[in-house]
Amino acid sequence: MKTLLFIFFLFASFTCKLYSQNFNFPEERKTNWSKLINHDTSSFNFTILNVLSLGLLNDSITDNSHILNNLISTYDSTIFFFPEGNYIFKSPIYLKSNIKIKGEGNNKTIFHFDINIPNHSINAIGNELNT
Asked: Is the pTM of this model over 0.70?
């Protein structure tokens, strides 16, 4: 019985050592997982537009409210991408259905709202779905 137990532990340690080694897969078998991290099926067939190419400025000075609200009312099924920077808004943003806003990330894309009225900074406008 002790011999059988010794053989089992020897086999188990050899197997663990074999599986813990680094395997080098050929390039054609490797997967670029970064493409899947931000996969958003709710945005399928959406157009992604960079707001800097549409006239917004991330200079911490310029009021971008009017331009962004005009863009939102013009486009459908769109993701407005805000590159890193500070964006100033002096009036509320009105988001409609099928419009998304996306930035570079925490502490990279920053929205500053300088609104001196008792109102929401971002207002969602659309239809309520009863499910």
From this structure: no
